[in-house]
Design a protein that fits this description.
The chain has 403 residues and is of the alpha+beta class. It is built from 7 helices and 5 strands; from the N terminus they run H-H-H-E-E-H-H-E-H-E-H-E. The chain folds into 3 domains: 2-72; 117-241, Helix Hairpins; 264-398, 60s Ribosomal Protein L30, Chain: A. The longest helix has 159 residues, at 16-174. The chain is elongated.
């Protein structure tokens, strides 16, 4: 354009060519600007297409991950189904044990009711005897009152008799010739004597009745004393029988401790705490598991032999039971098939009970309970305290049924 303008200066007479050049230059600039815009649009479209491809790749990776998660969920569902079947079987076993316990409780309740009826009958007999004694005492009191009234009447009659005799004596002294008066007085005297004799007979009969009632009262009091002695003897017999059973069970418990102490002698991971044996969970189970390990099965196998020998020696009328209790530490269960520490401790106790039952111990003499972390031996938050709290406890005790 500058050249055109310079050329124009040399040839001022011609203005067409410079204008044409300016138009072409302007058109060229517009075309270049349009091409530049087109290139920018193409670059933007290419960037967007590349971003969409990356998004598609991410979505494909997410679909693959979702497929893996779906497979994991299916496997977990199968595990839950298997666990549900096991829980259903355990529920059936527990229901049967509960029915057995209900039957034993009904029998014990019936026996206790019979004994309560006997005690009530003895109490009723005692109450009747006391009522009879009260009635007899009341009758005797009435008879004594009547006797006192009769004695008073007799005294009055004797006083009248003496007055009559005095009058007779005075009349005889005053007028020996008053036979009619004397005869009248003698008649009155005879009537009074007859009345006195009648009253005397009544007093004699009343005394005999009082003696009879006194004998009946003594007999009733003796019967009441015998009934009290019988009631006291019955209570003493029951207490003696219960004490005898407790002492006998204590003897077998001592033998139980002695034999197990001999078997477990020299082991630091098995202790005696009070009246029970305490096994550290690591001896019987792997961490977080409820299935007995080989070492645990070996230890429980030795215990089962001793327990079977002791169980064979305990009389049938001693209602004993071996209580197996599971305990854990205070660290929550975060994964696996157990819901919480309660669930884990209960399953461990049940594993021990099932093993002992398979080893020959009567199932009705075994009981399992899980306490989770809620009955620790130590409350400190240290590894040593947690190790001591993870344990299985065994206790030979007596089931209370009322027999």
């Amino acid at each position: 354009m500058a050249l055109a303008r310079l050329g124009g200066n040399r040839r001022p007479e011609n203005y067409t060519w410079p204008g044409f050049v300016d138009a072409l230059a302007t058109l060229l600039m517009v075309i270049i600007f349009v091409l530049l815009v087109f290139v920018l649009i193409q670059v933007n479209l290419a960037y967007r297409v590349a971003g969409q491809d990356a998004t598609m790749n991410d979505m494909r990776a997410q679909i693959v991950n979702l497929g893996d998660l779906l497979n994991i969920e299916r496997k977990a569902n199968e595990d839950l189904s298997a666990e549900l079947a096991g829980i259903s079987s355990l529920l059936d076993d527990t229901t049967r044990e509960r029915d057995n316990l209900v039957t034993q409780l009904a029998s014990a309740t019936a026996t206790l009711n019979l004994r309560d009826d006997e005690i009530r009958q003895l109490a009723a007999i005692q109450a009747q005897t006391e009522e009879s004694l009260d009635a007899a005492r009341k009758t005797i009191a009435e008879r004594v009152a009547a006797l006192e009234a009769i004695e008073l009447t007799l005294a009055q009659a004797e006083a009248k008799l003496m007055e009559s005799e005095v009058e007779i004596a005075e009349a005889s002294a005053r007028n020996v010739s008053s036979l009619a008066r004397i005869s009248e007085l003698e008649t009155k005297n005879a009537a009074s004597q007859a009345e006195v004799a009648q009253m005397t007979n009544a007093i004699t009969a009343l005394r005999l009745r009082i003696e009879e009632l006194t004998g009946i009262l003594a007999e009733k009091e003796a019967q009441a004393a015998r009934d009290k002695i019988a009631i006291a003897s019955l209570g003493k017999s029951l207490n003696n029988a219960l004490a005898s059973r407790v002492q006998e069970l204590q003897r077998f418990r001592s033998e139980f401790f002695g034999r197990l102490s001999e078997i477990l002698k020299g082991r630091d991971d098995v202790r005696i705490v009070g009246d029970r044996f305490v096994f550290q969970s690591e001896v019987l189970f792997a961490q977080g598991q409820a299935d007995l390990g080989p070492e645990g099965q070996e230890q429980l196998g030795q215990l089962a032999i001793a327990l079977n020998q002791i169980a064979a020696e305990i009389p049938e009328d001693i209602n004993w039971v071996l209580q197996v209790e599971g305990h854990t530490d205070d660290i929550p269960v975060r994964a696996g098939r157990f819901a919480d520490n309660w669930d884990l401790s209960t399953e461990r106790a049940l594993s021990v009970v099932r093993f002992l039952a398979d080893a020959g111990l009567p199932s009705n003499r075994l009981a399992a309970a899980g306490y989770g972390e809620f009955q620790p031996l130590e409350t400190a938050s240290t590894d040593e305290a947690r190790i001591r709290n993870r344990r299985i406890e065994m206790k030979l005790t007596q089931r209370i049924t009322g027999n």
